[in-house]
Design a protein that fits this description.
Helix content: 55-70%
Strand content: 5-15%
Low-confidence stretches: none
Structural class: mainly alpha
Order of helices and strands: HHEEEH
Number of strands: 3
Bound molecules: zinc ion
Mean pLDDT: 88
Radius of gyration: 22 Å
Number of helices: 3
């Protein structure tokens, strides 16, 4: 029981720390939108109309415009956020929490594997 409580406390602290880190890194919607824009540009923005990767950034509209076809691509176009009105910051918070949950589940699996090995050792005594 002591081991389980310690693990639970540790997992809780990690999630709690993650929220503090998140708030520090992304204090508002603008910081999330800018980060998302930079990440999309790092991966390359592709035009749906002509497949060109060369775009202008329309600062006031928060859209890319294809240099070849003038087709416009929104910040959310082609992503999981495309048909959502939820703020980018809310998406980021959800994704950060899901990431932490997956990491916590991975730690839990490792912990359970140790318990199984311990059980095997105890049975062999
Ligand atoms: Zn184009």
């Amino acid at each position: 029981m002591q081991i389980g409580c310690t693990l639970g406390d540790r997992l809780y602290q990690k999630v709690d720390m993650n929220i503090l880190e998140f708030v520090s890194k992304f204090p508002d919607e603008q910081s999330c939108r800018l980060d998302f824009k930079n990440k999309r540009e790092d991966q390359g923005v592709f035009c749906k109309k002509c497949s060109s990767e060369v775009h202008y950034w329309l600062k006031n509209k928060w859209q890319w415009q294809c240099k070849n076809s003038n087709f416009r691509t929104t910040l959310r176009s082609g992503t999981i956020m495309e048909n959502s009105n939820m703020p980018v910051r809310s998406w980021y918070l959800c994704m950060a929490q899901i990431k932490k949950i997956i990491q916590s589940m991975s730690e839990l699996v490792s912990f359970l594997q140790v318990l199984v090995k311990l059980e095997q050792i105890v049975k062999s005594l």
